[in-house]
Amino acid sequence: MAAQQAARVRALSTHPDVIALQVERVRRQVDWLMWSGIVLGMAFCMTNVQAFAAGDAPVGSLVWWSAWLMDPMVSLVLIAVIRAEQVTARWQVASTAWARRTRWATLGATYAMNTWEAWAAVDLALIVLHSVPPLVVFVASEAAPGLRDRLTAAVYAAAAADPAQRVAPVTVGEAVAAEQPTSGLVADPEGAGAGDRQESTTPAPEGAGAGQAGIGRGRWERAELLEAGPEVRVAQVVDLLRGGLVAGQDLTGEQVGLIFGQSERTGRRDLAAARHRLRTSRTAPAEPGRGGSGGSGDTGAGALVLLGPGPERPAGRVEVGA
Question: Residue 125 to residues 3, 114, 119, 136, 306: CA-CA distances in angstroms?
């Protein structure tokens, strides 16, 4: 009886919905603690920034009062960026480059105004004292989006680990299909299962080998995509480019980053490496026993298979061989 009760408790504790609720509670705690540290750090810097802006102006003068506007002017912009990234990171959407530049510029300005007098006096104690709050705000604003992204990934990983909650494994194609329309793909034949193989009639990209739109071999779980190393990511992006997953439109660095749970910058770097490898494979001489350059054997990862709407996939999911 005790063993059965323990088994039921364990089954409930590992249920994806229960894990999602636990993660949301942790997310609220993380957000509250992060915002507390950020607000306290900015409040500490406010008086130092005001003193820097006021200079030798008499207390109560117009210049002295207007100096109090300097810190809120900078801090409100910083808070706006952090608040926006709180939402985008929650849904694993990469932020823009200008958002990061804005954070660094506002934090750099706050640090300079907060520590100017300490550096001018070469007082090490004051330098350390006035450097800690801006640095805390900086590291908190940098770490918070990544933590929120990983918490969301933890919810998805829990759902992927429960076979009762999944119709089929999540593939690279399904991740991209969530961002792009799947019109024009080959419909899945009636009665075909998730693991059945079906050739696509979608035209291959110009210069692609004859075997590049062949049959997919193997599939990737979402958790494996998030943990994939650079070489694996580049090999998968090569397959995406070779198979022409998104007809008439190239992949972007942001899409590649979303697929593998990386930043847009990392996605651009992986995409550039994949395009370079694809160009190299097309110009390299074919090895004996291979059907031309750029075939599915280049990466050992298999070719792409594009499947559209059907009885098994009412949402028009895309299957991609790994």
Answer: 60, 14, 10, 17, 63
Quickly tell me which residue has 């504790």 as its tokens: 13
Residuewise pLDDT in 10s, the chain (322 residues) = 777 666 666 666 677 778 888 889 999 999 999 999 999 999 999 999 999 999 999 999 999 999 999 999 999 999 999 999 999 988 888 889 999 999 999 999 999 999 999 999 999 999 999 999 999 999 999 999 999 988 988 888 877 776 565 544 444 555 555 544 444 333 333 333 333 433 333 343 443 333 333 333 345 556 666 777 888 888 888 877 776 554 445 677 777 777 777 788 888 888 888 888 888 877 666 555 444 434 433 434 443 333 334 444 444 444 343 3
Half-sphere exposure of 165 (CA within 13 A, CB side): 13
Count of alpha carbons within 13 Å of 55, Cβ hemisphere only? 5
Q: How many whole angstroms separate alpha carbon 264 and alpha carbon 164?
A: 33
8 A C-beta contact, residue 258 and residue 174: no
- CA 129, 118, 122, 132 dihedral sign is positive
d(CA 69, CA 102): 19
Give the rounded distance of the alpha carbon of 208 from its chain centre: 30
Tell me how far apart the alpha carbons of residues 95 and 85 are, in angstroms, rounded to a whole number: 7
DSSP 195: T
The Cα 239–Cα 237 span in angstroms is 5
* 110 and 134 Cβ atoms separated by less than 8 Å: yes
Q: How many CB atoms lie within 10 A of CB 322?
A: 21
DSSP line for 203-246: PPPTT--TTTT--------HHHHHT--HHHHHHHHHHHHHHTSS
**C-alpha closest to that of 248 among 301, 289, 208, 204:** 204
